[in-house]
Write a structure and sequence with these properties.
The protein has about 675 residues and is an alpha/beta fold. The chain has 24 helices and 27 strands.
Length: about 675
């Protein structure tokens, strides 16, 4: 039969849905929403009824998303750990601006985003004061003065969002929307975002994620049972919070991610079984006899007469007795048998799992090895075809009953099943307060690192150098968890964390210890963990969000002729006066789309000049001196592109043109900034 031709409309629809899931409502294209995403929303477009999440300020939030930033990231090489080889990054700054700055560098490169945003409880929660548009006066005010309410505007610091505020939920949603859109951009096609949230915004966040990621990309909603109800509850005492999971492309995510976790007690069970198995066929006095001897003072010859060999049956009895005393439940508890080889196993039905009848090949009876008679076949057939059953028989993984009347079962070894599917309910009631105190830190309500480590391991692959992003880094739990995961399973994951420099209370213990911001605490914790695990952690690079090292044309600041002249004078040179070369280098690297962990080779030329080249030799940068010796060195190195500061040519357009032609002859790109 001939195949049908491509349905062009359906193909375009599918591609658009994959690229912009938010442009669809109830599986139909929403032209108004698409216009809003593209920044082409008109007032008349807002009319009409349709199913959507809406709130006061949503249009302004989309404008925030579309507003470009002129800031950049500057490296803090001196305070970083092993800068040259580090694969991990912590950025200090407003996460909205930082996410915009790193879009080109990290677009489609992050495997997992794990965030714990402000919960919007209404008592002490805060939102980011995103700037939807500013006048010149507002811009100058933000550089260092307080607003009318007394809140600092510099560096995008938090401001309170009280319940008495008429736009309590709206403000929180407006804060989250642009960040989630930018977060989706940096995810791999097979990546996913994992978001902690409590009861205050769980419903709204679900609808918002449906809009940003598409409802069809919802992976699930996990419940974290902390085992400790809130003591200040006015109604139902919540002892859980939700963890929402959305994939960028659910199908690709599930095909690339196992979504499993290690069985919590499996290693202890295997260890205990090995200890008991060593006693097989050894003579010893049963435990209950030893207890009676001790309690009633029986003669020692009683012990001698009661000595007997440990049989496999006795070992299994002891193993089951031990299991009942352990905090082992569910799937782990089913592994309650030890076989002749000392392997811990469980028995599982081999019946066909579906309601529909299996193919005929799945109804071939199994012959009992002793009676040589056929065993009962499950009503809907076996789970496996005859070829698979033969392989299981050859490996000794099918267990028969005493005779042919018992239906055979499949044998599952615990050592081959140390992981289990990630469940929807996660139990963990621990706290990391003591851990942080040992590090000399205090932090309000830190997430437990062991719990977060289990999430990191479930949503990443240890051998893939997966990047884990957390743009609400807080106490640094996600960074710590990534390092702990690598320590445990030998993985090569790396983290990228972002934290706002939110001011600490001057009366707090951490302030008294010379910490000034939460970002300081984050940085200190990560460095402390690295110091304790130097054998598995390459290091970390620190960056800060800062104004561009290059002059930016600001037409919004021009209100008169004097303002225009001032702007023109700025552009006598592109770079700002006294801008450090390393800062300019990294700004240009970021604009080229390089990762923040890019390896840079520094080349000296005749002790008079320096240029920098990316490790893959794609781009070279000249930022201090350009002369014939530098040009010849670059021609010899043959990078794909050379980028120079325009001021290095001293307005000699002829020299610049000749240099450009020379590079072109050698098939090397050339541009100036």
């Amino acid at each position: 039969m001939e195949g049908t031709s491509l349905n062009i409309a359906a193909d375009i629809r599918q591609r658009l849905k994959e690229m912009i899931p938010g442009a669809f409502t109830e599986n139909k294209i929403d032209i108004v929403q698409l216009k809003q995403l593209l920044g082409e929303m008109e007032d008349e477009d807002a009319t009409g009824e349709r199913y959507q999440l809406d709130w006061a300020g949503k249009t302004a939030a989309y404008k925030t998303l579309q507003t470009p930033v002129t800031d950049t990231l500057i490296p803090d090489i001196a305070d970083s750990v092993n800068w040259d080889t580090a694969n991990n990054v912590l950025i200090e700054g407003d996460n909205l601006d930082v996410l915009k700055v790193i879009q080109k560098s990290y677009y489609g490169k992050v495997k997992a985003i794990i965030i714990d945003p402000p919960y919007n409880t209404g008592s002490d929660s805060f939102i980011y004061p995103d700037r939807f548009g500013e006048t010149k006066a507002a811009y100058l005010q933000r550089l260092g003065e307080k607003d009318d309410a007394g809140f600092m505007q510099k560096e995008g610091l938090f401001r309170p969002n009280r319940k008495e505020n008429g736009q309590f939920h709206s403000n929180w949603l407006s804060m989250m929307l642009p960040r989630l859109f930018l977060a989706r951009n940096v995810l791999k096609e097979e990546g996913a975002i994992v978001i902690h949230i409590d009861e205050h915004e769980q419903a709204n966040l679900t609808l918002l994620l449906n809009e940003v990621f598409g409802e069809e990309n919802q992976v699930g909603n996990m419940v974290w049972d902390k085992g400790n109800p809130k003591g200040d509850a006015g109604g139902i005492a919540y002892q859980h919070e939700s963890i929402l999971v959305y994939a960028k492309n659910k199908e690709k995510f599930l095909s690339a991610t196992a979504l499993t976790r290690k069985k919590k007690n499996a290693e202890r069970m295997l260890k205990k079984a090995a200890e008991l198995y060593k006693q097989l066929n050894q003579e010893e006095v049963p435990e209950e006899v030893r207890q009676l001897h001790k309690i009633y003072g029986l003669p020692d010859e009683v012990l001698a007469r009661c000595r007997r060999k440990n049989t496999l049956e006795e070992i299994n009895r002891q193993f089951n007795g031990w299991l009942k005393k352990q905090p082992v439940t569910g799937g782990e508890l089913a592994y309650n048998k030890i076989d002749e080889a000392g392997q811990v196993y469980r028995l599982v039905s081999m019946a066909w799992p579906n309601k529909k009848k299996a193919p005929d090949d799945y109804f071939v009876p199994l012959i009992h090895p002793v009676t040589q008679k056929p065993c009962p076949v499950p009503q809907r057939g076996w789970r496996f075809p005859t070829t698979t059953i033969k392989e299981l028989l050859d490996r000794g993984e099918i267990i028969f009953g005493a005779d042919e009347s018992v239906q055979p079962q499949r044998k599952y070894l615990l050592k081959n099943n140390l992981s289990e599917n990630l469940p929807s309910i996660l139990f963990y009631g621990g706290s990391d307060d003591d851990l942080l105190r040992k590090l000399g830190l205090e932090f309000e309500n830190p997430k437990p690192v062991d719990f977060t480590r289990s999430l990191v391991q479930a949503f990443t692959q240890p051998d893939q150098e997966d990047i884990v992003l957390d743009f609400f880094a807080g106490s640094g739990t996600t960074a710590h968890a990534v390092m702990a995961a690598n320590q445990q399973d030998g993985g090569n994951r790396r983290f990228l964390c972002i934290q706002l420099p939110e001011q600490l209370d001057e009366k707090s213990e951490m302030y008294k210890k010379s910490f000034r911001t939460i970002a300081d605490l984050t940085r200190n914790r990560i460095k402390s963990v690295i110091a304790g695990e130097q054998d598995t952690v390459t290091g970390i690079r620190f960056y800060k969000l800062a104004p561009s090292n290059f002059n930016i044309w600001r037409s919004d600041l021009i209100e008169n002729e004097a303002d225009l002249v001032a702007q023109l004078q700025l552009f006598s040179r592109q770079e700002k006066q006294a801008a450090p070369i390393e800062n300019m280098l990294w700004e240009l690297l970021i604009k080229q789309g390089c990762l923040l962990t890019e390896r840079i080779v520094k080349e000296k030329v005749a002790d008079t000049a320096t240029f920098y080249v990316t490790a893959d030799n794609k781009t070279a940068f000249c930022l201090d001196t350009y002369n014939e010796a530098v040009q010849q060195a670059l021609l010899q190195r043959q990078p794909a592109t050379v980028i120079c500061l325009d001021t290095l040519f001293n307005q000699d357009d002829c020299y610049k043109t000749n240099s450009q032609l020379s590079f072109r002859d050698h098939k090397i790109g050339f541009k100036t900034v």
